Task: inverse folding
């Protein structure tokens, strides 16, 4: 059985977590790995139903996802990919300590770029005070200080970002290098 | 996609949870369902590492397994099978409320029969005071009051028990009836 690991994408809304994580998932599947992607929407509406946006609720949300990733990693040998804003560093450190084979990917994009892009119009609403607890605007985001991968999605394409994640997984020995 | 459900086996050590749950898993796979069995040993040594046998730790253990079952049930449409002593009724009720499609199977066997069988010699040790917090001997077990299935493993074979679980799943509409 392959050895599992957890690939954790953290970053602001609109930074590219979903895009890059899905691209990475595809690349890993092409290499024959069993991959499971934890989707924020499914998790929000199902296993974290009723949880809000307070620090406690966000932490509980991430903790639940973490248990699933841990189980997939340890018991199933799966490459578990999670893409969540996960703004608090303490809970991310808790997952790292518990899971062990944990790769943190900081999907970094400057707030001003995100506000300008604003594909879903959420930043506009948040800045106008119509959305409360919107991370980066009126709720904190604690950036990772030592992520395994630090992406800059304002200056690199999703393909480049995914390639960089893959290269890191190879260097860590979590993914076999592709034969030349 | 098939609709998932969680099949929860609860009962004392040695009552037959693992045997009947594995037999049920096999029968469900034969009918083409995607099945995932949560194994107590794997969970104990991995995702619940460091947790002990206090009520709080046992509840936390079951809660973690519950998140995984919930995710398998809702997001993956899997038949999630869990076999744990899970002695406390409150936490089982919590899982039932959260998961919804939750089928509780009480694997019931009188304590005196278990003590007489004592395949692993654990009851002897517990009765001699060499094991602390051993459910049924020196730690409580709260039997389910309204389980979907109440097995009596002192008077029925594992095959009969598994058949009764399967019949219940059919009646609930969670498993299609096998064509005659």
Result:
């Amino acid at each position: 059985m392959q050895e599992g690991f957890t690939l954790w994408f953290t970053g602001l809304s609109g930074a590219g977590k979903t895009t890059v994580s899905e691209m990475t998932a595809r690349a890993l599947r092409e290499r024959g790995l069993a991959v499971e992607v934890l989707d924020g929407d499914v998790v929000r509406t199902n296993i974290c139903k009723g949880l809000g946006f307070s620090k406690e609720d966000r932490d509980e949300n991430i903790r639940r996802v973490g248990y699933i990733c841990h189980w997939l990693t340890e018991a199933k040998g799966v490459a578990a990919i999670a893409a969540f804003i996960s703004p608090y560093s303490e809970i991310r450190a808790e997952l790292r300590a518990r899971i062990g084979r944990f790769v943190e990917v900081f999907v970094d994009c400057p707030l001003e770029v995100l506000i300008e892009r604003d594909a879903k119009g959420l930043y506009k609403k948040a800045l106008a005070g119509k959305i409360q607890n919107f991370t980066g605007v009126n709720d904190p985001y604690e950036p990772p200080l030592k992520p395994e991968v630090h992406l800059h999605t304002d200056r690199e394409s999703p393909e480049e970002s995914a390639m960089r994640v893959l290269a890191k997984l190879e260097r860590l020995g979590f993914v076999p290098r592709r034969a030349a």
Remarks:
- The longest strand of chain A covers residues 102-108.
- The interface with chain B takes residues 39, 42-43, 46-47, 64, 67-68, 70-71, 74-75 of chain A (CB under 8 Å).
- Chain A is about 45% helix and 15% strand.
